[in-house]
Design a protein that fits this description.
Elements (H helix, E strand, L loop, with lengths): L8 E4 L5 H12 L3 E6 L2 H15 L3 E5 L5 H11 L4 E4 L14 H29 L2 E6 L12 H21 L4 E8 L5 H14 L3 H9 L10 H11 L11 E4 L9
Parallel strand pairs: 1-2, 1-4, 2-3, 4-5, 5-6, 6-7
Helix pairs in contact: 1-2, 1-8, 4-5, 6-7
Length: about 260
């Protein structure tokens, strides 16, 4: 399917690895030029080089922490006029509700709620003026069904979801759509981190920890960054203009919800 976005320009944050890279790869395959951001320079440059070689699109890299004012300013200086925004950031660490401080919550909110909002506020006015734009926020299945040990993520990402619910309806008349993709467990560094915690807590092997988690997923496997990226690219396409303010699960059926 031709997504109709060849020649458009996208900003993808946390785009050097995992789900962010999956989205960047899928957009590049559709002919979209990229501004890629991540904290680690080495991985970021390697990803950019691979995407350029595979798809022949222009890729600009900006290394830095997108959750800081300085990091956002540097990224936005390169991404001015972007048609597509894909927001992504690593999730806060798991833990126990009684152990988190105010500073822990502020850090989670900065990364997973306030930064995506700031990026939308910076880029959507231009999209609206041009009459077309796409925003996809990578959130989590936890906004549909909370994950007890991920309370920081539950709180921050649900806050972003509430902001998007109203804002998406306000910008849709100008041809700009905002939607959220809610990943379950995908075969990324985040899954490895979570599974490592199970290994440590239960004294089992990594293979056993992964098998235990896969048994809770009806699809009986982890998702892949490529299939996640394909869903992201479709939401950014000309075919998705009537999808507004939605929260779309990509979790292999793991979330027990009727609606």
């Amino acid at each position: 399917m031709d997504l109709g976005i060849r020649g458009k320009r996208a900003l993808v944050t946390a785009g050097s690895k995992g789900l962010g890279r999956g989205c960047a790869e899928a957009l590049a395959a559709a002919g979209v030029d990229l501004v890629l951001n991540a904290r680690g320079t080495e991985a970021l440059e390697a990803t950019a080089a691979a995407i350029r070689a595979a798809h022949g699109v222009r890729v600009v890299t900006v290394a830095g922490d997108i959750a800081t004012e300085a990091g956002r300013a540097a990224v936005l200086a390169e991404a001015a006029g972007a048609d597509i925004l894909v927001t992504n950031a690593g999730g806060p660490p798991p833990g126990l509700w009684s152990d988190w401080s105010r500073e822990d919550f502020i850090k989670a909110l900065d990364a997973n709620m306030l930064t995506p909002i700031a990026l939308m506020q910076a880029l959507m006015p231009g999209m609206m003026a041009r009459g077309w734009g796409r925003v996809v926020n990578i959130t989590s299945q936890s906004v549909k069904a909370p994950i007890a040990q991920l309370g920081l993520s539950n709180a921050a990402r649900t806050g972003l979801t509430g902001f998007v619910a109203g804002t998406a309806r306000q910008v849709a008349p100008q041809g700009v759509t905002i939607n959220n993709l809610l990943p379950g467990i995908h075969d990324t560094d985040r899954a490895t981190s979570l599974d490592s915690g199970v290994v440590k807590a239960k004294g089992i092997t990594m293979d056993a920890a992964r098998a235990e988690r896969m048994a809770t997923i009806p699809a009986r496997r982890y998702g892949t960054a490529a299939e996640f990226g394909a869903a992201c690219a479709f939401l950014c396409s000309v075919h998705a203009g009537f999808i507004v303010g939605q929260n779309i699960l990509l979790d292999g059926g793991a979330t027990l919800a009727t609606i």
